[in-house]
Amino acid sequence: MYENKSVPGELIRMLRNVKGLKQEAVAINMGKKQQYVSKLESAQYISETAIAKLLTALNSNKEELEQIREL
Q1: Would you kindly state where each structural domain of the chain is located, as residue ranges?
Q2: Which helix (H) or strand (E) is 7 found in, with range?
Q3: How far apart, in whole angstroms, are the C-alpha atoms of residue 69 and residue 8?
Q4: Using an 8 Å Cβ cutoff, are 25 and 33 in contact?
Q5: Whether residue 70 has pLDDT greater than 90
């Protein structure tokens, strides 16, 4: 689905915004600090493990992420 099983952080940012969530809320759902989410969203690529954790925190899935990619 994703090249090298990774995804640009910008897609996560876009998905978070569509969901109407703040970085802090996502971070709390992940058990992390807001700065961690900010760093991931600024990353050129995010690992598959981090993507899975982010999608869980966003109450989302890879299909929704793929829809964001197509926008």
Answers
A1: 3-69
A2: none
A3: 10
A4: no
A5: no
Amino acid, res. 62: K
pTM for the model stands at 0.85
**Could you give the CA distance from residue 48 to residue 21 in angstroms, rounded to a whole number?**
21
- Classify domain 3-69 at the CATH topology level: 434 Repressor (Amino-terminal Domain) (1.10.260)
Tokens of 42: 């600024």
In 3-state terms the chain splits into helix, strand, coil percentages (rounded to 5) of 70, 5, 30
- Exposure string of 9-19, with b = 16+ CB inside 10 Å and e = fewer, is bebbbbbbeee
Length of the chain (residues): 71
Other Cβ atoms within 10 Å of 54 Cβ, number: 25
Question: Which pLDDT score, from 0 to 100, does residue 6 have?
Answer: 53
